[in-house]
From TrEMBL:
It comes from Anthostomella pinea. Pfam families: Q_salvage. This is Queuosine 5'-phosphate N-glycosylase/hydrolase. Its EC number is 3.2.2.-. GO terms for biological process: tRNA modification.
């Protein structure tokens, strides 16, 4: 076939490939860890304490060993779905589409809470309880067709799904509806109305699935410009925890099988930074410490917030490296360390042992 018959775009790609500028076989990268290190290297309001981080690595490793913490721990949670099938994939997608911003400015007993299975659930668990309750009431809350049906799925019906047993309703209800609407539209337009088609498109790459989510759904585009840097800093927290929840729930098999799962980083939320600060691994400048300690609002995308999120990602990476250095055989990655730290923080909260508050940023990103 002569040049003038070949597709010019394909020719350009091949020319770049053979000039070594483009590796057609290269594995996807999310860029999250690279961005986190950049912010850490330039941070002035958040610092890492290497001795505390080293000590934390030893404590975390020993406790994870004692508790035999593994992907199996995910399904042991009372409210997490147990079936290893497509309905659970739909549940996890819906859950991590809405897995953000449960914190309240109200006193503990007045914050948004959900009554389900004779218990009162707050925070992340209020979300999971609401979804389980809706399914038991035959509301198809995990079905993309429902999300697009404005007759059935609207602010009123969503208010009912997330009805509270206190005076406070779930934060950002309108934003949650918008996330469902967009996801319903994108799944309809590109993925045959099923998130399993996104998993198939990622071809068992965790980074590829994270990038696909950030590319196709604005609700997952958790990235921000930072101080004149050309490329945005990517946190992609809900996209990453979605992949991690699939991997953990399915124990790395079937819908949870990813060859590059270790590329997933810690999920930059508001709980893990809190326990890292409690362990002394991360420290705040006096002005930032005052803002966090007084539970003042920190704006989404602000320098304070980005340093908090990025330094937490980097800190967990250093903890992971320290554990692997001391125990090369350890089957540990940033996901399991993160899950363990989140659960530990929630235990401290339940025991009333919070010493440093979590930071308060209201956004759909975490
Ligand atoms: N980094 C990180 N962030 C996590 C989780 C989870 C729950 N994961 C479960 C799955 C496996 C684990 O074993 C957990 O049992 C929720 N979050 C985030 O925290 C915030 C909610 O806080 P609160 O309002 O206090 O419940 C909110 O931003 C939510 O997105 C995690 O694991 N890691």
């Amino acid at each position: 076939m002569s040049d003038d018959e070949a597709d010019p775009e394909l020719l350009a790609l091949l020319r770049q490939h053979f000039q070594g500028k483009l590796n057609l076989n290269e594995e996807p990268e999310t860029g999250v860890l690279e961005g986190a290190e950049h912010v850490y290297d330039n941070a002035i309001d958040v610092a890492l304490d290497m001795r505390a981080t080293k000590n934390a690595a030893a404590i975390i490793y020993n406790q994870m060993q004692q508790k035999q913490f593994s992907t199996e721990s995910w399904s042991e949670h009372e409210l997490h779905p147990k079936a290893k099938d497509e309905s659970t994939v739909a549940f996890i997608f819906t859950m991590d589409l809405l897995n953000f911003s449960f914190w309240s400015m109200r006193p503990e007993g007045e914050r948004f809470a959900v009554s389900y299975r004779d218990k009162t659930w707050t925070g992340y668990w209020s979300l999971v309880a609401s979804l389980q309750r809706a399914l038991e009431e035959d509301i198809p809350i995990t079905d993309p067709h429902y999300w697009q049906n404005e007759e059935e799925c609207n602010l009123e019906s969503l208010r009912y799904v997330f009805r509270s047993c206190t005076e406070e309703e779930i934060p950002l209800l309108e934003s949650r509806l918008a996330c469902l609407r967009e996801a319903g539209r994108v799944l309809y337009e590109k993925y045959n109305c099923s998130f399993t088609k996104c998993i198939e498109a990622a071809d068992k790459s965790a980074a590829g699935l994270v990038n696909l989510l950030a590319r196709d759904f604005t609700a997952f585009q958790d990235e921000f410009k930072y101080e004149g840097r050309r490329k945005p800093i990517r946190f992609l927290k809900r996209a990453q925890i979605l992949v991690a929840d699939l991997w953990a729930c399915f124990n790395g098999e079937g819908y949870g099988e990813f060859r590059d799962i270790d590329k997933i980083t810690m999920f930059a939320d508001y709980r893990v930074p809190q326990i890292l600060a409690t362990l002394g691994c991360i420290g705040y400048s006096p002005p930032l410490h005052a803002v966090v300690a007084h539970k003042e609002i920190i704006d989404s995308g602000s320098k304070y917030e980005m340093q908090l999120r990025a330094c937490s990602i980097w800190c967990v990476e250093l903890i992971r490296r320290e554990i692997k250095r001391e125990h090369p055989e350890a089957e540990v990655n940033a996901i399991l360390i993160d899950f363990f730290l989140y659960d530990t923080m929630k235990q401290l909260e339940a025991q009333g042992k919070e010493t440093i508050p979590h930071h308060r940023t209201r956004s759909i990103w975490y």
